[in-house]
Amino acid sequence: MIKNYTDVAPIIKYIRSIIIFNYAIFYKTLRMFCVSSNKLRQKRSYLITGGKMRVYLDNNATTIVDPHVFEVMEPFFCQKYGNPNSLHQFASDTHKPLKEAMQKIYAGIGASNEDSVAITSCATESNNWVLKSIYFEYILTGRKNHIIVSEVEHPSIMATAKFLETKGCKVTYLPINSEGIVEAHTVRDFITDKTALVSIMWVNNETGAIFPIEEIGAICATKGVLFHTDSVQAIGKVPVNVKEANVDYLTMSAHKFHGPKGVGALFMKKDQELTPLLHGGSHMGGLRSGTLNVSGIVGMGKAMEAAIDALDFEMSEIKELRDRLEDAILEIEDTFVVTPRAKRTPNTILVSFRGIEGEAMLWDLNRAGIAASTGSACASEDLESNPIMEAIGAEADLAHTAIRFSLSRYTTSEEIDYTIDIVKEAVKRLRSISSSYAYAPTGHNDGPNTNH
Ligand SMILES: Cc1ncc(COP(=O)(O)O)c(C=O)c1O
Known about the structure:
single chain; Aspartate Aminotransferase, domain 2; Aspartate Aminotransferase, domain 1; 7-stranded mixed beta sheet; 3-stranded antiparallel beta sheet; 15 helices
């Protein structure tokens, strides 16, 4: 007979342990199921929904998170959630993973321990930080008054440069050549003794054009000018090494290489640390205060490691898929590609379809479940011509018809076959209703650099 709590306590304890045990098994099984089904989904990155295939070819805008990245991030939400700066075990639990993640980030770009890598919230922040710091350190103090950028930088550089012009900074916007590339000699031509910084992207986000960063870095080093490169579209697609490229500052963003959104970084060479961006604490060596985004940093470390491991795959298998898509597109009359393949990242095609508004093409593709872009995601809400096509001086009917397809290591062969069929159908349909094309088909593909 049960008289008091002591009599029932062992029973309650027993039942509780069974519940906890079963819950643990249930939770683990559920987690394993989620991770493995996620992996399966990743393997065939398209989904069949309602009989419609979905194909993601907008990887220069953002990428799917690698399931391994997701897996390593997960414990830092509900288990290891301590503030790394606190003085207890919850904090200590984060120290080793943070250190290992930072080592992976340093290793991924060839940085040494004396250099600094400050974690930021995105590449836009890193780019703003560099330019505005140079303004504080050099322009405002009157030591120098000039910076050089290319005319095809991402808006986070362009808009910041324009803002600094309103504050008295002189800015040179370097032209690109007919292949969409900034030539190194133009950098040399425009450097003066008043130049504080050269900022040129490693890879262009629209065309995938690879700029001669090592040559530009060497020129800047010889001339004693600081050199920043936005490597957002380069990481995981081409080898990136800050030492070989003589880089003083380098920007990156995890969500462009299968890491999480909301985390980026800024590399600063030894002895070239910038003005602190956020004051208020000792985080990031006092350069950028604010409680660390532990899961994000751990995720970016893993994503960097995976991107480096997958580099050969990217440069061979993805390139093969990209080339197959491009060959098929270029078989269509009146299609044009700007940058030769050998001078581009292996995943990107920017192609113009004469007579077809880019947005109309996107609409047809989207209806068939295919995601592509008319240019950088930040600008694609505006019905404007493509800035690269404008910069190379392309005719208006080409500049308005550019579509960017950007692949990733999750793109499959079936997806490319499907895309080829849909693109051909869309071109046929849209040209049949295009008044401009009805009057001006050229019937061949003699646009800029088509046969590369
Ligand atoms: C070359 C380049 N720089 C910077 C950015 C901005 O990246 P984030 O979204 O991390 O701010 C992008 C995004 O498209 C980009 O392509």
